[in-house]
Amino acid sequence: MTHIPSSMDFMKATNDAIKQLHRVSENILRCSERIEKDPKPFQDALSILYKVNKTPGSKVVITGVGKSAKIGEKMAATLTSTGTIAVMMHSTEAYHGDLGLIRPGDCVIAISNSGKTEELLGVVHAIKRSYLSSTLDGFCENRLSDSDPCKSPHLNMTNNYDSGTTSETLECIECQNKDIVECAPPACSEPTFGCSVKIIALCGDGNSPLVQFSDVWIDVSVDSEFSDTVPAPTNSTTLTMAVCDAISINLMHLTGFTQLDFFKFHPGGSLGQSMYNKKRISDNNSKLVRSREVVTKWVENKSCDSPYS
Fold first, then answer.
1. In this structure, what are the phi and psi dihedrals at residue 154, rounded to the nearest 5 degrees?
2. 61: nearest Cα among 81, 83, 84, 88
3. Are 86 and 71 in contact (CB under 8 A)?
4. pTM recorded for the entire structure
5. pLDDT per residue as tens digits for the range 232-247
6. Where is each SIS domain found (predicted)?
7. Given phi > 0 = left and psi -120 to 50 = alpha, else beta, which region is 269?
């Protein structure tokens, strides 16, 4: 039998919503305190993005899966409208050709609460090493043959950071063939991706593979989501969105992006109209100030021509 909520149920739900909103603000406050205690990661991220903004042809590529991809779409739109070229690259599509969006000098912002999303890790790993070698070492030979029954290799990655090596295990799902390759990263030289493309991770787990593969990590961890029974992304997505906005707006200030620049990029809608009205008032005020200066000069110096002649 379908349960019909009573008035008490709606009252309880409203009270729960109030508590949840308080928890959101508490998580945002804790994040700001983490940045205040250790501002270097945030400063490093802004520094990388500033260089991208000032380098002709460079852009910001944001990647993620699921709700993180939705956050990435919003961040890309905010960055683009405030003077920094940015695109959203879905991690699944990236692994099937969209990695071609990335060029040396770009910056990748990888968004994942867990830092363990398989599609995202595959993309990050590909960015770090795909252009460091022209060989296909590490791929199952069966998969490269014409009679290949293996269409879906599963990539497992482990790292030995003390020795500076990376162990890859490629296990073909259908034939279970395994091939383990030890590859030491070659020395950095332009224009290889591993050196010239920086990766900024927005992640809630500092021990995750994503953070290990990234150049900068901004901690967006939360104590819990809204619901204790269904872990739908809520607190984590709200905090991540807030951090993305903080990055975008402060990058805008650093690059010298002005109200006039914003109006050029955003002439439509009520926001564009409000900017137009402000500009018109500003122009009228400038004309008024100029008129006052001319009249004052004429009064002080009777020998000059009338300002209205």
1. -105, 125
2. 88
3. no
4. 0.70
5. 999 999 999 999 999 9
6. 49-257
7. left
